[in-house]
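Data availability (excerpt). All sequences and predicted token strings are deposited with the supplementary files. A representative entry, Dihydrolipoyl dehydrogenase, is shown inline so that the format can be inspected without opening the archive.
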Amino acid sequence: MSKNFDVVVIGGGPGGYIAAIRAAQLGFNTACIDEWKNEKGGPAPGGTCTNVGCIPSKALLQSSEHYEHASHGFAEHGIEVKGLGLNLEKMLGRKNTVVKQNNDGILYLFKKNKVAFFHGRGSFVKGDANGYEIKVAGAAEETITAKHVIVATGSNARALPGAEFDEKLILSNTGALSISEVPKKLGVIGAGVIGLEMGSVWRRLGAEVTVLEALPTFLGSVDEQIAKEAHKLLTKQGLAVNLGVKIGAIKTGKNSVSVEYTDAKGEAHTGEFDKLIISIGRTPNTIGLNAEGVGLKLDERGFIAVDGDCKTNLPNVWAVGDVVRGPMLAHKAEEEGVAVAERIAGQHGHVNFNTIPWVIYTSPEIAWVGKTEQQLKADGVQYKAGTFPFLANGRARALGDTSGMVKFLADAKTDEILGVHIVGPMASELISEAVVAMEFRASSEDIARICHAHPSLSEATKEAALAVDKRALNF
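Structure token line:
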């Protein structure tokens, strides 16, 4: 006998599980279907983010940063470390524990909010405006029905043609998080978020890392001044970043990978690596959804086609997160999930794409919100800019991390904040103040007039706002 629900969410990643919880809070009889499995075959909700993305990568970034501090940074603090060793198995074990804690936390939240959870792959069978039949293919196949369906099936790592992932030598983000021995030489194709974060982890642990990027500029979507500063700092640490590269043949041996490529000058090279991480973007995951069976429309790039409210072409079918247009960010997916649940309830769910923050968790961190300086120039917008270096920040000096800066961009006439860009310590936390300010359409003067605690890294934000009017106090 089929189980009937008001709302069924297919996918238990950040967009999906949050949508399910919010729908349940709003009084809907809600179910969530997710097929991720842990090492014992049990449910592991949380999607790519929790299992092989945001959460485990941050765990390894933190662990590897501790290791680098112990091996290089503690001495200047008067802390002498002798006989330093690396227990990689334990480090990876800690990462796995952090992941499981998040998996279990989501299952707890489902129980707390009375969300029915189905462990398996969800796919459409049939349906119309009166309701949809959804098959759950798990340990035991069953069918459930729903008035509304929210598709939140996420994305998959994009492979290079002729270099498919085996997760042993040629790695996606999944394999990059579980290398059992620090490679002597690690190749990374793609200098995006995943490539830089994973490259940073293994460089800190002792690998010689070579990054190969096809684009001629480093982090082209980041503000140019911030990107140049980040490039300088990351290469100084030891990341070898090659831009304007054209990848040729990739060949695997018994224990190595060779990559033929030409550099920006047109000169041919062959890189020999113990492991190769390919991080050239992600593709929407509609595999097994049976979209064609019910006439669910996909766009020319394979994303589920939605309007501004995340409605698909089918009545009462919605889609959120990586499987639809917009930035592939966990927090974007969460906001869309909440908004859709509220729209189903007749409320006015809201997602402002102009104030979605971006973060790259390298060290130093890179974070930004709003427009870059090059975008404002291209759009013909008159603006003022203000920057402040962490070198002149007391808390940064005390931390021993004075790299980077905060940069404000404000409208030349109204002083409204148009963008804030940070490279430096704890940029991921500092950017939140800028997001709030921009959501309330604040001016740089508003931030400049707010009292910030001393000593704190956030004072650099205030000083950069002051610098928009050329009146920074500590630089």
